[in-house]
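Q: Hi! First time doing this. I have a protein sequence and I read that you can turn it into a structure. Is that right? Here it is:
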Amino acid sequence: MNSEGIIFRLKEVLEHYSLTSSTFADTIDVQRSSISHLLSGRNKPSLDFVMKVVNKFPDVDLYWLLYGDGSFPKKKEEKKKIIETISEEIQKEDKIETPTLFSENMINEPEVEKVSNTRFSSNDKKLLKIVLLYDDGSFEEYNK
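A: Yes, that's right. Below is the predicted 3D structure, encoded as structure tokens:
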């Protein structure tokens, strides 16, 4: 992890959102002096700090911040691709697999029980929204 690169990208985030180092520190709930020390190169960013940035600013990609891979802000196409991939996986789970030539040799895994909050079930359902809940209490919501 190159801390100089992270600091450079942090400056891009501040500039993009037109934030001062003080408002940025308040936003991610860290001491103002720690931002000053990071931006001056005196201290290196901790994992906790990086995760606070990524959690408070959804357009900041973790790999972009750490390694410079990807883009900032996240492209809408990338978000759309994630939503489509999840949607495809959900639709695949709903389809019944047709037997193949080698299906008798496959190991059968126990079927996972699907829990639904709907009263009536129908096969013509369409995905409207995906909500990702994280263990730190944050979430991301994607609408189709």
